[in-house]
Amino acid sequence: MFRPLLQSFGALLVLDADCRRIQATSTNLACLTGIELPENGELSLACALGKRLSQRVRRELQGQQRLPGPLAFIRPKHSSVRFQLHAYRVDEQVIVEIEPLNPLGKRRLLGTVNERLMHLAEATHQEELLDSLVNAIQQLTGHDRVSVCHFDSDWHGLIVAEALGERLPSLLGQRFPASDFPITLRRSYENHPVRLIEDVNAPPEMLMPAFSAIPLSGSFLRAPAPERQRYLKRLGVSSSLSLAMQGDTGLWGLVFCHSATPHSVEPPVRDAVRTLVQMATQRMLLLRARQEARYLQRVQDSLVLSTRARSEPQSPQRLLHEQAATWMKLFRAHGIVLWVNGGAYQAGVTPSPEAISQFVLRLERAHVHSGPWCTRELAKEPLTCSLAMPEQCGALAVPLSMNATQRAWLILFRPEQVETLYWAMQPSANPLPASIVTPSVAWYEEVVGKSEAWQRVERLAAVDLGEDLTLAISAYEISSLNMHLERERKALAEANQRLEQLAHFDPLTKVWNRYRIEEAINAELVAAKRYAAAFALLLFDVDNFKQINDSYGHSVGDDVLVALARLVESSLRGCDHLGRWGGEEFIVLATHSDVDAAVGLAERLRSLVAELHIAGLEQAVTVSIGVAVWQPGDSCKTLISRADDAMYRAKHGGRNRVEMALEPMAPTH
What is the pLDDT of residue 308? Predict the structure, then answer.
């Protein structure tokens, strides 16, 4: 009969559903806690833990899946040692985990954690943040090596930060194959983000009497699987503490704490380390969001301004000639193509016109939605593998919707980037279980045939660039019609109407675009300064929009934006205006509104959106809203900036929230 195996640093009890009768215990119960089972094996929880503690366990666990937090207790008749108790339900049983609590300087631990949290909060870039994290964890736990392992899109792990002692070698910069992190292991970290192996060589404890019906995969005390034991031994590790780093869309990476000898970590220290990891992860996501925002702003600053596009229309060829160098630098590309009306305008290193023509033809057939298309391996991509593109390795193509039946294309090309990867152990195309992988020394791999990966923020920026180019090209076409087709009044009127639509309305949601809502804000600013008429801006975006696109496809993402715009627009007063600011961001201009009216409107819109249902989308749609009310001295830029800061606070405060902008700082003299 199979018996679950447990680690010896804690003891385990299996209770009935009512938390009264003990059905099984770990073999180290008496040795660790002094609790002795009678010879007949019958023992109540009250006899083992005392009447008061057992009643508290039953009361707090009643109707709950697990205790809200650990309970501490002492068995004064047996020992002065303090113990910590966790309890949770599994099927028809209750599992109780007990660990001893050795004396700790709680005030000193709290002070150390608070100091390290301050260091994390002050970090200004990811490298500094992760270095501070691993050093703090090593100081708290005393492990020989603390490493941060980040997963790439193929689930290979890269050691990006490390704090190192003297007894284990460095892993910094080394990679681990995806076979070391099977999907079952990655999923387990979603429910159990902390895993401790105190001594990989220690003989395991068992449940007595044998109790094979209950799964203990969720127990913190469970013994490591044989393949995990062999894996750690191959790394020269005897003790391991692992913590998950959860990103916006899943597991970003893991923190590994390794020791060459058996090493214990007290529960308060584990809790402190988990707090540090959670804080560092949130700070890292915030830093990344700020970095992406700065990059998007740089791209927006490079765009052809709408007012200039209308007053001084430029041909696609001239646009590309003037802006190509800037765009290639921003997107780290070595070639760019603007395909308009069946012709290609090229700059930098690009394929032949024939290859470009075939490429666009295939894109038109295969890529029907409005989002970007990209690859980093043109030679292996089914769409392009048969095309002659010897000097190109990666491509990013953005469709430009000129009208209902015609699309232009903006295409960026990247060269091959030969990359040397340093693997800690050899990856395999057919991953084998760790138990039968033969030991191997670290080795180098030269990756060829790939370009740099197209980052999410680069794809978003390319879409922004494409929207502005659509307007600029349309303006040029209208200008040409005005010069050469004056007698074609009907055609000219239709073209001017199309230009007006493109200039003022977002092509997807049909609400005002960024240029038009900025015009309205500026007009409202003039009125506010002259008549002191208060107004407000509500800046909001869709929470977890990237996850919706990745999980359900861009067509569902487009449906969300369209339905959201319709709902909000129909809920506004006639004097209020809605505009799409970019991507999943929208702005509401609420005229004649003070603080209370603006916040009330924001809360009403937030509640309405939360009830929105989209066909094909199983998750709720929510928004985070930042509210800024005009103050004397505000400009369009400062007002939007304050609303944007408030929106970010709403997003990082839990999403589906409304936050009020801070008052503008008074000018110093």
Answer: 55
- Predicted confidence (pLDDT) at residue 363 exceeds the cutoff of 50: yes
Domain at 509-660, CATH homologous superfamily: Reverse transcriptase/Diguanylate cyclase domain (3.30.70.270)
The residue from 99, 458, 518, 584 that is catalytic is 584
For residue 669, pLDDT beyond 60: no
Beta-carbon contacts of 163 under 8 Å, excluding residues fewer than 6 positions away, are: 131, 134, 135, 137, 138, 145, 146, 147
Q: Which residues pair with 94 in a beta bridge?
A: 15, 89
pLDDT of res. 1: 45
Task: Locate 609 and state its tokens.
Answer: 């959106």
Q: Which of 207-221, 240-254, 524-538, 638-652 has the lowest mean pLDDT?
A: 207-221
Share above pLDDT 90 across residues of the chain, in percent, rounded to a whole number: 54
CATH superfamily of 106-200+237-290: GAF domain (3.30.450.40)
Q: Which residues contact 645 (CB under 8 A, 6 or more apart)?
A: 626, 661, 662
Give the domain ranges of the chain: 5-101, 106-200+237-290, 303-417+450-492, 509-660
What pLDDT is recorded for position 39? 67
- Please state which CATH number belongs to domain 5-101: 3.30.450.20
Can you tell me the mean pLDDT for 505-512? 91
**HEC readout, 492-532:** HHHHHHHHHHHHHECCCCCCECHHHHHHHHHHHHHHHHHHC
How are beta strands 443-447 and 535-542 bridged, if at all? unpaired
Q: Class of the 303-417+450-492 domain?
A: alpha beta
Question: What DSSP string describes 105-134?
Answer: -HHHHHHHHHHHHHHHHH--SHHHHHHHHH
What's the whole-number mean pLDDT along residues 219-232?
A: 90
**What do you get for the CA distance between the two ends of the chain, in Å?**
82
Q: Which pLDDT band, with edges at 50, 70 and 90, does 428 fall under?
A: very low
Tens digit of each residue's pLDDT (9 = 90 or more) over 108-129: 788 888 888 998 989 999 999 9
Question: What's the rounded Cα separation, in Å, for the pair 23 and 217?
Answer: 18
Task: Give the residue-averaged pLDDT of 509-518.
Answer: 92
Half-sphere exposure of 139 (CA within 13 A, CB side): 15
Q: Is the Cβ–Cβ distance between 252 and 151 less than 8 Å?
A: yes
Distance CA 32, CA 98 (A): 9
Q: How many helices (H) and strands (E) does the chain have?
A: 18, 25
Paired residues of 206 in beta bridges: 5
Pairing label, strands 585-591, 535-542: antiparallel
Among this protein's residues, is 584 annotated catalytic?
Answer: yes
Coil, strand or helix at 95: strand
Tokens of 546: 């990237």
CA 52 to the chain's CA centroid: 45
Whether 106-200+237-290 and 303-417+450-492 share one fold: the answer is: yes
pLDDT in the model for residue 419: 76
